[in-house]
Amino acid sequence: MALMASTRREVDERSFPLFIYILAPLLALGLQSLVTLHFLRFGMLDLPLMVVVYFAMARRNPVTATLGGAAVGILQDALTHQPIGVFGIAKAFIGYLAASLGVRIDTEAHGTRLVLTFLFMLLHNGIDWVLVRHLLAQPLVWNWLHELLRAAINALIAVVLFALLDRARIRE
Amino acid sequence: MESFFSRYKNALVLLLVLVMQLLVLAVQAKRPSKDASDPEAVSLIRYVVVTVVATPERLLRNFGQSIEDVWFGYIDLIHVRRDNASLKNQIEQLRLEQASVVEDARQGQRLQRLLGFKEHYIYQSLPAQVIGTSGTDQSGIVYIDKGSNDGLKPDMPVMTADGIVGRLKDVFPSTSQLMLVSDPTSGVGVILESTRTRGVLKGGAFNQVQMINVSPDDRIKPGDKIVTSGGDQIFPRGMPVGTVDRVVPDPDRDPLLDVIVHPSANLAQLEEVLVITGMGDAVSSQEEKDLAESEAEGEAAQKRASDILSERLPSKIDPSAPADTNPDSNVDSTGNVVQPLHPPKPLAPDGFTPGSTPPATALTPGERTVPVKNGIEDLPKAPATAKIERAPTTTGATSATSEAATTHAAAKPAADAADAAKTSTAARSGTASSGVPLSKPAAKPASSQTSNPVAHSPGAASSGVASSSGKPASSAGSLKPDTKVHVIVDGPENRAPRPSSTFNPPASGSSTQPAPKPVTPARNGPVVVPDDGSRPPATMPKRPADSNSSPAPQGHGA
């Protein structure tokens, strides 16, 4: 598995139809909201984060990934009762990181996607925990086992989701 | 400079975005706790997002609901007629049950009013559908399809038929944000039903609900019910919350406990909830109307029952019966008991007669009106005109002392008192009529004054006229003219005879007649007591079988 980008094709930016950029985050938010209503364990997943990571790695543009991550995070914050900005900060940072890594790392391979998503998920939850627990002084429990399991499940789901989103890519 | 921005463009953009969001976060977090509402900009963002996300959810929900309605309302109608008949029967039964419990409910309300108990009744509620969640397990937020257009306001309590669910947080025109009790930032005042321990219900890790800061109490057991305490001014008192799942020590506060709660309402599968939109100190007009109807039905049912009973049972009052001439009758003309029965007036009042002794407040503890010499009361001599109300007429020693016990020897002659005291002392010192030596004579001389309530007790009275050494007490001095000496040796056997007995006590007017001295002590065998508790008449025939083995029952007049 090549971790570094070795060909021009691998470092090219991927482009998608415009509605995909709008529809995918909204669909992720809607599904997350609706499915969790009937399956409580679905709340372990973070579909908006997967979308942010995917577009960041596909577009390989840190600025748009940062702004996109912030926007999706704010939307997600708006659905919760916590102050606006918690998920926004976390997802903006993850978007920036994913886009920056996407320039240097081959993100087409499933293994790379699996590992990266696992790490991004852990980092995202860590940032979230720091902000909520230490900045907002609200009760939030950190359980390593739970977080690792959650990150692993999200990574597995992300690999499938990324493969589906690859089909929406504009072929050159 | 230009190269700096172009070189670090990405990092600068990230920094800018992060700083802006941190500022927004700081503005929101700095808000005072009293002003719980979000700033306008944040509310606007929430409103837009919720509208965007909730609208398709609502459409999806309505679409599914319409399909469900078509299926269950027009297609899947098997056994509907049979179910309808069964449900009608159930309604009839429930009507009867309602009629029977409505009176109890009324009584409870009256008592609560009497006690000034302010109960918040739920008299207005609004059903709502849950259409979505926040989507993250860190936030116990769900969305319902009713909003401010339907009259909802923030902090309204929400519940299901099983128990409380949460309270409204943000209310939008057509949607509301419902904060579940499993949210870490929620708080509900609760109380344990069994131990009455109060606490705060909060959300914990992994959507579990816990009661925090509970004092250590061994009585808290799994399965104990938890209800709302009403202390949070949001939820009415007494609403079911859940049951105790387990008790764990609080990691942050060592001696305190956390009670993990199993919620009554299924928070993971919420579909329909009830928003309580109105509470008050009194029931609503509609509920009053329902109660009145139920009460009328209950009264009608009771009347029917009483009619049936009156047909089956004989009348309580017989009109042809003679009038009741009993002055102590405690029933009125309708046959109802109106006052408790009074005991009949005693023929010969004794120390146990109500009202014969002064109240305890009029007495001085340890007070003696008679001087004591060498441990013996120095009783004064009584004048010769002493009057004996009743004289002993029995032949046995016990009978003699018994009569002496019940004798009100007002100003009894000294000699008679001495005789009685001797007899009493003899009886108490081992020559009991039953032939069994008394194991313990009265060791303590007691006051012989009638005013002393101690003297009315059998033991004390018996030793009142005799010292512990058996010396006659009354011979040492003379009794006062009005002094009454109660000598009671054996209370139950020396009761005043009942009028039905053939025993005729000597006339109380024979004041000059001295009390006859007891003759030879005789054995006093077991006494046959009739069922009515009275002493057997003197003419009661002896039983042949018992004539040899045991002495015949001896009446007072024998």
TrEMBL record, chain A:
The keyword Cell membrane applies. GO terms for cellular component: plasma membrane. It holds the Pfam family MreD. It is found in: Cell membrane. It comes from the Bacteria. Belongs to the MreD family. This is Rod shape-determining protein MreD. It comes from Silvibacterium bohemicum.
TrEMBL record, chain B:
Residues 300-315, 481-496 have a biased composition (Basic and acidic residues). Pfam families: MreC. Residues 77-104 form a coiled coil. Keywords: Cell shape, Coiled coil. GO terms for cellular component: plasma membrane. It comes from the Bacteria. InterPro entries: Cell/Rod_1, Cell/Rod_MreC_2, MreC, MreC_beta-barrel_core. Residues 326-337, 499-514 have a biased composition (Polar residues). One of its GO terms (biological process) is regulation of cell shape. Residues 391-434, 453-478 have a biased composition (Low complexity). This is Cell shape-determining protein MreC. It comes from Silvibacterium bohemicum.
